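Hey, I was hoping to borrow your eyes for a little while. I've dropped the whole record in just underneath, so have a look:

——
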Amino acid sequence: MNPKIICHIMSSVDGRLLTERWTEPFNGKSKGELMGVYAAIGRKLNADAWMFGKNTLQEGYFPKKFHTSDKTPLAHPIPYLAHKTSSRLFVVIDPDADILYESSAVRGDRIVTVLPETAPAAYLEYLQQRDISYLFAGVKGDELNAAMKALAETFGVETLSLQGGGIIDGAFLQAGLIDELSLVVYPGIDGSASSPSIFEYIGREQAPARGLSLELLSAETVQDGVVWLRYKFHK
């Protein structure tokens, strides 16, 4: 059984994600203070794992890439469980198997990286040396159902908080894996048609949300104009 997946995201009132483009809060507070509200709400979800997309991870934490001349994969790769150094996990999907980690944790939470079965043996050895857990999601590393099942069965994950960006949210949406949407609405506007939105599916499916419907569970005005909406996905 897959873990419960909650898409927890903060957007402007027009559904955009680039915080630097949002208008300023009306009351003179900083954007950072209101982002802190989003983080506090996230802790209420009590997820035992959380994740965001590879691009977000590399931009904010690990910008360098791993290089090896030997691309030979293992014949029968198996997941690797690193030492337990935190109660919560941080998960990232890395279909290129090339993130160069300078730490085995993100914000204190130990990393689990989702890889293709064709990941070079040299890269797997590097991850083990860094004591970083990994699992596999098919030949291309993009079989999300397989990845989530492995997280539940191998790592004991019961609830995962999916925190963007829009591309990874869109992939999970199209796969029908999201159980709940936790949408924190920032009291400001982006206004640009070119800015990424909450769900940015990239693929052949023309209607990635086909067959899904949303049930409003709660609507709460938190503070400083921030609104928290929770929806249940029906499939």
